[in-house]
């Protein structure tokens, strides 16, 4: 386990501070305003005695050496907490047993080539270090000592680590704030979502010790945006911003990550490396990350300005919708992920929930017609009424507040609240005259290292298109929470000239009525869907194919199949359509294509 210890070094020992853990001079040097600076880690692991408090240590025999075969995992109890015991290539490893993201039991996940993949949302952890290697989530896992005595396996662990089941990686702090004025920073991050925060944290984890400034139009510190609509976890549509914060306020202070809230960038001057804010304030930067996400589309119909019509974008939006919708009539426009998840959440709270959608079936383009119909049937059995293949023509009001929603089909729906989920556009309008390449849809175009066409300018998250290795480097937009995390990490590493290319497999999930659909890959343009299991029972796995190749997979009540497929795709192996049609699963173990 890595224990964070603050070390005060005398002035005469200061030179040793710039040494790497192996005693050699660190080659990691970064130039700021023409001045070379060494990286500086504020905390140093003490390898000789990782357990600084003997009272905090527990040691227990957990099994016989022959109880586990290679490639097996077991959840073991040490008395004051549990650990995950793993055997791979003849060696035992032990680490935290819960995914730090949402607490999934990792013993039900997938072990492959030195890492464990979470069965719920696909985060990956190195079994040798506990470090997080793929997302979502910010924290790594604690790693515990394993020893073998008389054919028994013992685990020695910190009681605190067993209880918390998470570990924040060591980070540097800023040592040069006094060298900057308010209008100058080394790294400027526009946007404070997952991509921006992971970028900032990765820089600090890699030892970067100069100024980092994040700016956001939001009034809050970075928060878990999916929790605004994924009610299954923490019932967060009626929660407070602090409850869904990705990091507490103290974290940003500790690691000198400055966050400017309610600050909108109006333009970027790439020639002078300056961001111009809406209020006229200007900030110079050395490296820039643009991670502004997207902006929800609004309705364009008559009456769109009436009260109680919402795009759920902030905690305040979510709380307002819940308050107004309770025991009232709700109309949701758009059977998108947002629309469907909100409908599922409100079905038990509202008097009625109606969902209006232009397509024939929800999720048809994403999950296919058969899966879409199965999901639609589940919603109908939970009192959600669908109005398909139609649009909203008018929003009618009474005393300024929404009263009715009129459809183009002529149907009039009673409505006290309307939630709009009809898609989004990239929030990149402020870049139009910047010289940064943007495609016809407004997406920022980046390469595999998240670099734009302008040196020193990177972009990440929902607002970009990037080459997806899984689809032969096709330029795609993948607006998923997991992918935004990875974008941020790759951008940070390449700000530090690591030459790291993105190769992760897209992974997403959606939760409705206590059931989750998990999805991995990129199925855009699929031409067939192969179903295994029972759609009527909502226990199935769907393989999305293009020609003879499986390009994506979705499942419900079929864990951990999606994580298994994600590991196969991450290894660069091809899954053939004929394999999933015949039910041959040899490809899961590497025996197939």
UniProtKB/TrEMBL annotation:
One of its GO terms (biological process) is execution phase of apoptosis. Keywords: 2Fe-2S, Apoptosis, Electron transport, FAD, Flavoprotein, Iron, Iron-sulfur, Metal-binding, Mitochondrion, Oxidoreductase, Transport. Pfam families: Pyr_redox_2, Reductase_C, Rieske. InterPro entries: FAD-oxidoreductase/Apoptosis (IPR050446), FAD/NAD-bd_sf (IPR036188), FAD/NAD-binding_dom (IPR023753), FAD/NAD-linked_Rdtase_dimer_sf (IPR016156), Reductase_C (IPR028202), Rieske_2Fe-2S (IPR017941), Rieske_2Fe-2S_sf (IPR036922). GO terms for molecular function: 2 iron, 2 sulfur cluster binding; metal ion binding; oxidoreductase activity, acting on NAD(P)H. Its main location: mitochondrion. GO terms for cellular component: mitochondrion. It is found in: Mitochondrion. Residues 60-155 form the Rieske domain. Induces apoptosis through a caspase dependent pathway. Reduces mitochondrial membrane potential. Belongs to the FAD-dependent oxidoreductase family. This is Apoptosis-inducing factor 3. It comes from Sagittarius serpentarius.
């Amino acid at each position: 386990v890595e224990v964070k210890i603050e070390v005060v070094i005398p002035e005469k020992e200061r030179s040793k501070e710039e040494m790497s853990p192996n005693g050699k001079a660190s080659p990691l040097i970064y130039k700021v305003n023409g001045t070379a600076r060494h990286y500086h880690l504020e905390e140093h692991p003490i390898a000789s005695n990782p357990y600084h408090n003997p009272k905090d240590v527990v040691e227990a025999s957990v099994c016989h050496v022959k109880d586990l075969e290679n490639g097996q995992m077991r959840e073991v109890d040490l008395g004051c907490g549990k650990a995950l015991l793993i055997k791979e290539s003849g060696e035992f490893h032990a680490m935290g047993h819960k995914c730090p993201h949402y607490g999934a039991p990792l013993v039900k996940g997938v072990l492959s080539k030195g890492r464990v993949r979470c069965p719920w949302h696909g985060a990956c952890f190195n079994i040798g270090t506990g470090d997080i290697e793929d997302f979502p989530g910010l924290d790594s896992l604690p790693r515990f000592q394993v020893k073998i005595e008389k054919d028994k396996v013992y685990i020695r662990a910190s009681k605190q680590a067993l209880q918390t089941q998470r570990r924040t990686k060591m980070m540097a702090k800023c040592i040069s704030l006094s060298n900057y004025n308010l209008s100058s920073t080394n790294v400027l991050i526009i946007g404070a979502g997952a991509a921006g925060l992971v970028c900032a944290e990765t820089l600090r984890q890699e030892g970067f010790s100069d100024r980092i400034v994040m700016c956001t139009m939001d009034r809050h510190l970075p928060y878990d945006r999916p929790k605004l609509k994924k009610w299954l976890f923490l019932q967060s549509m009626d929660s407070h911003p602090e409850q869904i914060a990705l990091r507490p306020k103290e974290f940003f202070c500790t690691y000198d990550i400055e966050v400017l809230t309610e600050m909108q960038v109006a333009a970027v001057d790439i020639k002078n490396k300056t961001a111009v804010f809406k209020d006229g304030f200007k900030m110079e930067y050395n490296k820039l990350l643009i991670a502004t996400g997207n902006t929800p589309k609004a309705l364009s119909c008559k009456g769109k300005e009436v009260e109680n019509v919402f795009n759920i974008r902030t905690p305040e939006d979510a709380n307002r919708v819940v308050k107004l919708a309770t025991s009232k009539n709700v109309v949701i426009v758009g059977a998108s992920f947002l629309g469907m998840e909100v409908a599922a959440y409100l079905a038990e709270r509202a008097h009625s929930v109606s969902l209006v959608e232009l397509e024939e079936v929800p999720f048809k383009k994403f999950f296919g017609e058969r899966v879409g119909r199965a999901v639609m049937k589940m919603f109908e059995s939970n009192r959600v009424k669908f109005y398909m293949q139609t649009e909203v023509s008018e929003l009618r009001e009474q005393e300024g507040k929404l009263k009715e929603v009129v459809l183009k089909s002529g149907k009039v729906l009673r409505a006290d609240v309307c939630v709009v989920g009809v898609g989004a556009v990239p929030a990149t309008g402020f870049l139009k005259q910047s010289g940064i390449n943007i495609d016809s849809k407004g997406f920022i175009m980046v390469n595999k290292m998240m670099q734009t066409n302008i040196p020193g300018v990177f972009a990440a998250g929902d607002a970009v298109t990037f080459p997806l290795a899984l689809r032969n480097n096709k330029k795609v937009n993948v607006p998923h929470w997991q992918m935004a995390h990875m974008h941020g990490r790759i951008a940070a590493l390449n700000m530090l000239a690591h030459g790291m290319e993105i190769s992760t497999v897209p992974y997403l999930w959606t939760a409705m009525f206590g059931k989750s659909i998990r999805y991995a890959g990129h199925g855009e343009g699929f031409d067939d869907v192969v179903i295994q299991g029972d759609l009527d029972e909502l226990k199935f796995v769907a393989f999305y194919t293009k020609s003879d190749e499986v390009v994506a997979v979705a499942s419900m009540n079929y864990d951990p199949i999606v994580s298994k497929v994600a590991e196969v795709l991450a290894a660069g192996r091809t899954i053939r359509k004929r394999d999933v049609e015949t039910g041959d699963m040899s490809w899961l173990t590497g025996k197939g294509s």
